[in-house]
């Protein structure tokens, strides 16, 4: 267990916001978590879990103990006629994990290439892109209960996956829990994910539902693309649309794509015929948040050093650098102004994707 004090967090969040952690523990094994819970000084203090920092907005210094997840490890757990079961440590970089599975001959995650962050954060957010969500490839995960130190395993149903949602984003219930296990309750702030297992179906089938991928397939003149080709296409598409956090600080898509009823969508289409929308399996209609923001004239606009990316209105970026970086306050002022603008024009409330601290 490595404990550090007064740690700068600017290198630990992809937006590049300057802030500090009063106490930071580098967690490189499950035993490190148990050591934290057994430590007389650390055990009783609030905890805050940090992965790759790709989905957070820091509005000040972090007083709770920061658990920086750095558990590594990639392995094939099981291979059957119907699936490969692959396990990754929570501290593994997500994109590197996707690339590793393909290199090992285990396709299935290629549509999720180049999503920033770590493996441990992927179930929390139920990450998704280009027609695939994590829940479509999820087997189970291991976690540690920060209240009891007990290790437990959850399957997909117990994770309660939703659109960019899971049990890990909801506050714990005040009701007692049988046997100390956190079943049937929110796990935000209570559980730390240590390992995630993925079920990659056999035989593999490409997922090409998105227009951008279909265009790439037609351009390449390929009827049946390989998983590696889809991986490469997704990387190219994302790099063309989204800024590299190492060059221009950002947290990826800042707002969730809102869903409305067919009647609500028809009403908006009557006023805005060009609105980008997608029918969902449950009968609802998903609206493109980036289109809504762009239609309100926000692309390229800024508040202080926080700005709307000129190539993709769904992304907010950091126009500052180093000691003159953007502040979390500037980011959230811009975000709230965008929310107000979209609501006044469309009657739609945009919900931020990043966790605001």
Automatic annotation (TrEMBL):
<dbReference type="GO" id="GO:0071949">
    <property type="term" value="F:FAD binding"/>
</dbReference>
<comment type="pathway">
    <text>Cell wall biogenesis; peptidoglycan biosynthesis.</text>
</comment>
<keyword id="KW-0131">Cell cycle</keyword>
<dbReference type="Pfam" id="PF02873">
    <property type="entry name" value="MurB_C"/>
</dbReference>
<feature type="active site">
    <location>
        <position position="164"/>
    </location>
</feature>
<dbReference type="GO" id="GO:0008762">
    <property type="term" value="F:UDP-N-acetylmuramate dehydrogenase activity"/>
</dbReference>
<dbReference type="InterPro" id="IPR036635">
    <property type="entry name" value="MurB_C_sf"/>
</dbReference>
<dbReference type="Pfam" id="PF01565">
    <property type="entry name" value="FAD_binding_4"/>
</dbReference>
<dbReference type="InterPro" id="IPR016166">
    <property type="entry name" value="FAD-bd_PCMH"/>
</dbReference>
<feature type="active site">
    <location>
        <position position="353"/>
    </location>
</feature>
<keyword id="KW-0132">Cell division</keyword>
<comment type="similarity">
    <text>Belongs to the MurB family.</text>
</comment>
<dbReference type="GO" id="GO:0071555">
    <property type="term" value="P:cell wall organization"/>
</dbReference>
<dbReference type="GO" id="GO:0051301">
    <property type="term" value="P:cell division"/>
</dbReference>
<feature type="active site" description="Proton donor">
    <location>
        <position position="253"/>
    </location>
</feature>
<feature type="domain" description="FAD-binding PCMH-type">
    <location>
        <begin position="17"/>
        <end position="203"/>
    </location>
</feature>
<keyword id="KW-0573">Peptidoglycan synthesis</keyword>
<dbReference type="InterPro" id="IPR036318">
    <property type="entry name" value="FAD-bd_PCMH-like_sf"/>
</dbReference>
<keyword id="KW-0274">FAD</keyword>
<dbReference type="InterPro" id="IPR016169">
    <property type="entry name" value="FAD-bd_PCMH_sub2"/>
</dbReference>
<dbReference type="InterPro" id="IPR011601">
    <property type="entry name" value="MurB_C"/>
</dbReference>
<keyword id="KW-0521">NADP</keyword>
<keyword id="KW-0963">Cytoplasm</keyword>
<keyword id="KW-0285">Flavoprotein</keyword>
<dbReference type="InterPro" id="IPR006094">
    <property type="entry name" value="Oxid_FAD_bind_N"/>
</dbReference>
<dbReference type="GO" id="GO:0005829">
    <property type="term" value="C:cytosol"/>
</dbReference>
<dbReference type="GO" id="GO:0009252">
    <property type="term" value="P:peptidoglycan biosynthetic process"/>
</dbReference>
<dbReference type="InterPro" id="IPR016167">
    <property type="entry name" value="FAD-bd_PCMH_sub1"/>
</dbReference>
<keyword id="KW-0133">Cell shape</keyword>
<dbReference type="GO" id="GO:0008360">
    <property type="term" value="P:regulation of cell shape"/>
</dbReference>
<keyword id="KW-0560">Oxidoreductase</keyword>
<comment type="function">
    <text>Cell wall formation.</text>
</comment>
<dbReference type="InterPro" id="IPR003170">
    <property type="entry name" value="MurB"/>
</dbReference>
<keyword id="KW-0961">Cell wall biogenesis/degradation</keyword>
<protein>
    <recommendedName>
        <fullName>UDP-N-acetylenolpyruvoylglucosamine reductase</fullName>
        <ecNumber>1.3.1.98</ecNumber>
    </recommendedName>
</protein>
